[in-house]
Amino acid sequence: MIKIDMAWKMAALLFVYSWNSVAFGQADASNQVTTAEIATSAQAFLNTLDEAKRSKVIYKFSDDEQRKRWSNFPVGAFPRGGISMGELSQEQRSTAMEVLKAVLSEGGYQKVLQIVEADEVLKNNQGGGRGGPGGRGGRGGGPGFGRDNYFISFLGKPSATEPWMMQFGGHHLAINITFVGENGTLAPSHTAAQPAVYQIEGKTIKPLGKEVEKAEALMASLNAEQRTKAVLGYQVRNLVLGPGRDGQMIEPEGLKADQLSEKQRAMLIDLATEWTGIANELVAAAKLEEMKKGISETWFAWSGSTEKGSPAYFRIHGPTVFIEFAPQGQGESALNHIHTIYRDPTNEYGAKWWRK
């Protein structure tokens, strides 16, 4: 188990040192991994498993119960389907990580590793007890937390042509990526972190740091009239359409992007790519073009202080994108415990490509 843990730590460290080279907004269509290559990587992982383990990983593509079995809670409070990293050998876990690398961008893979590592820090720093969900006022830690408690599952057989889905998640993480031929979507997915700031080998890690930086920069760019429209007249303390809210939507609020300058619209799109760009270039490039086409009908809303470094909720709501960012109160800096959600109001789980 020590070797497995070190493999995770070294992977996280590798991306710590390469972070500044990652740019989510620059999804390059010439650098796309094909769905055939992704399916091959997924099958290579399945080939490392015996029948008992393989049967835990694979579900029917039609299994809507498993499709929706994801949450911000730790596995002790919300059991996942699939197989956990703790049940895999070092070789099997490494092969599973290769699948994750294939379906995610370089920056997306780094973000996922850092979220998982944050949960390991939470487990080690606060361990013991019942291992509660670590919500408002809770301490978290203990059983159900840490890198061994992240699960992988496939809905359908990995294929270059037929619909299939990969899920990877645990506490504060739900990667749900669906492929139908060359089409793919990461919606809905959940990223979060606690602690949202921690140290590895003397390096400060902020899994969701870019989201904060880019949102603050966008707010700082707004003039008084724009800011008045962006800031909601009421306080939002948590995700409105978080886990368990599939199929729901709200009316757009805040500042409409047709009232932004060209530079500000680019900043808004760049902020959104911190979520859409988690997916590999195949998926991210297509979504980027969708967002650009729908930018004039996209809204930006803010709730909370506009002072830099202050915890605040924000939302991006466009024709094909819905993103929320919600700091959580923990008797500590609220920015040290963050929940976020990414949805596509028109295409949750890629349904427009496969649902009859």
From TrEMBL:
It comes from the Bacteria. InterPro entries: DUF3500 (IPR021889). The keyword Signal applies. Keywords: Signal. It holds the Pfam family DUF3500. Residues 126-142 have a biased composition (Gly residues). Residues 123-142 are annotated as: Disordered. Residues 1-25 form the signal peptide. This is DUF3500 domain-containing protein.
